Amino acid sequence: MSRGRLRAGATLVTAMLLLAACGGGEDETPSGATGSAAAATNQEAAAEVKTLLAGEVEFPMPTEAVDPGTHRVAVIASGLASPGPSVLAENAMDAIKTIGWTADPPGDGKFTPTTQAQLIEKAVLDKVDGIVLVSITPSAVAAAVKAADDAGIAVVCALCGPDLPEGMVGVGNDHKAAGRAQAAYAASLAKPGDTVVVYQNTEFKQSEEQMAEAAAAVRKMCPGCKVKTPSLLLAEAMHANAPIFTSLLNEYRKGTLSSVVVPFDSPAAVLANSAAQLGRDDFAVIGLGSLSPFVDMVGAGRPAVAKADVLISTPLYGWASVDQLARMLAGAKTWTADQMPVALVDRESYAGYEKGKLFVLPKFDYKAKFTELWGK
After folding, report:
1. How would you write the chain as a 3-class SS string?
2. Under a CB-based contact definition with an 8 Å cutoff, are residues 200 and 261 in contact?
3. Residue pair 334/288 in contact by the 8 Å Cβ criterion
4. Is-contact 148 122, C-beta < 8 A?
5. Where residue 32 falls among pLDDT bands split at 50, 70, 90?
6. What pTM did the predictor assign?
7. How far apart are alpha carbons 147 and 141 in whole angstroms?
8. From CA 44, how far away is CA 57, in angstroms rounded?
């Protein structure tokens, strides 16, 4: 996708501020990694990065028309204070209006499973025909989800991760592709013998698989690199000078670290600020989600370590969620919408986006395409 055709937007998957328990990582330098092999591999990583920075990715789309009928539905977000769920919910509401359905304003789960469950239960009592959940972990609201299922209500879950309950349809990015994109950027900068830290997070299935993929991909793309995999847990990376990051920077002195790959943008911003306060500009921080302030740090080139971010397609997910719901309600076959591609943004490519709207989106007019498939 040409830079001029890219759209943008503050996204993300729930505002996740993380903590990491530094240490316990694995130092791995595979034997037999020659300089020429590493150079060739890194050239491949650089080529992948170039494609991702240009947004040259292929998006899946349904091809069969569907009769949407007339329905009343509900949209329930994990929390509307976060730009990711808010943008997705807003686009789902636009799609609902276009398709000709009715819905109350999006429910705000306030990042609290109890509140989210109450909103789902209310939708069940209101006898809606379908529900779009946004960035909600189904297992955290299992009883409410079961109540919806028992009532025969179709449920689509956008940006909710893998392993959804049977009968629920997912929409979102390919989390393993996100990990590979981060790895490609890190590997493109690294030389044999360099250290790359790839934080692991096991609190969320999606981030667990994303970061495991990132670590494996760095090892493959940079066979001579030392890959460290410390844990990053939810909670302690939300404050300036978080001990997890000051410990990291004390352990890896200037010139001993190539890149740090972080599961979410919020802790990436904390790490970047910590590095700046210590005068560090010798490594790259690679985040995910295009969330401010980190993605704006990438665009400004300040702090210097804020080098790249993974972009997803949040507005598209809102429209795709409504299309999937329409197919479920019509008894039609759904399509694979939970493995959508990702892209990268760095300081140079940031200029090609409208400020505050950093998303990778299809070259074609996806809203018009969905509208056509709905017969509207």
Report:
1. CCHHHCEEECCCCCCCCEEEECCCCCCCCCCCCCHHHHHHHHHHHHHHHHHHHCCCCCCCCCCCCCCCCCCEEEEEECCCCCHHHHHHHHHHHHHHHHHCCEECCCEECCCCHHHHHHHHHHHHHCCCCEEEEECCCHHHHHHHHHHHHHCCCEEEEECCCCCCCCCCEEECECHHHHHHHHHHHHHHHCCCCCEEEECECCCCHHHHHHHHHHHHHHHHHCCCCEEECCEEEECCCCCCCCHHHHHHHHHCCCCCCCEEECCCHHHHHHHHHHHHHCCCCCCEEEEECCCCCHHHHHHHCCCCCEEEEEECCHHHHHHHHHHHHHHHHCCCCCCCCCCECCEEEEHHHHCCCCCCEEECCCCCCHHHHHHHHCCC
2. no
3. no
4. no
5. very low
6. 0.84
7. 10
8. 17
pLDDT tens digits, one per residue of 235-249 = 777 788 899 999 999
Instruction: Decide: 289 and 12 in contact? Cβ < 8 Å.
Output: yes
Query: Could you tell me if 341 and 173 are in contact, meaning their C-beta atoms sit under 8 angstroms apart?
Result: yes
* pLDDT tens column, 221-238: 999 999 999 999 867 777
Report the C-alpha gap between 156 and 324 in whole angstroms: 7
Q: How far apart are CA 361 and CA 313, in angstroms?
A: 6
Q: Write down the mean pLDDT value for the chain.
A: 89
Instruction: Of 247, 305, 298, 295, give the one whose Cα is nearest residue 273.
Output: 305
- Residue 30: pLDDT band (50, 70, 90) is very low
Residue 13 predicted with pLDDT over 60: no
Residue 28, exposed/middle/buried by CB under 10 A (0-12, 13-18, 19+)? middle
In contact, 280 and 248? CB cutoff 8 Å: no
CB atoms under 10 Å from CB of 56, counted, come to: 14
Q: What pLDDT is stored for residue 161 in this prediction?
A: 86
Per-residue confidence (pLDDT) for residue 234, from 0 to 100: 66
Residue 293 has pLDDT above 50, yes or no: yes
Return the structure tokens found at 283.
Answer: 């490594």
The answer to whether residue 26 scores a pLDDT higher than 80 is no
pLDDT band at 22 (very low <50, low <70, confident <90, very high): very low
Instruction: Answer whether the bond into residue 263 is a cis peptide, omega within 30°.
Output: no
